[in-house]
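User: Thanks for the earlier help. One more: Aminoglycoside phosphotransferase domain-containing protein. Can you show the sequence and predicted structure together?

Assistant: Of course, both are below.
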Amino acid sequence: MGWDHTGEQLWPARDTPGPVLHEQPGPDWVDEVAVAARTLLLSASDLPLVLGHGDWESQNLRWVDRRPRAVHDWDSLIAQPEPAVVGAAAAVWPAGAGSRHAATVQESEAFLDAYQHAAGRTWKNRDQRLAWASGLWLRTYNAKKDAADGGGPQLDLLANEVDQRRRLAGL
């Protein structure tokens, strides 16, 4: 979620052990998409910040009778615009569930729709774009980590969806 980091490099520090991301070459398309998503997200500095969970993945959620009972891993607390918090969650919520690594575009879309329905409002175009850009930023960050580690499922999954996610973010 560190698109708003204060460093001069594109990528924030890794949240897992491994090579420093800004020292790793390519893939160029991952870096280019990350720059576009980050630029859009940084343009939202006029929006109010909300507190949210920055690691909304299945292994951090506990459910009882189809109702959420607990959210773990609160060291991932973030303060970002609401669409950014929700968009990131929409992009990765199934991660950690068996072999799942991220949400499909359709699952992300359903998550965003369900959130707006539960909140009792429909987001304007700008908020929709910010949500998709936030999810895309998080997915590029995970793909970059995979690339730096020699490849992996995050990179492969994003390669198959990047054009559709870019379009939904208006990039």
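User: Great, one quick takeaway?

Assistant: The chain has five helices and four strands.
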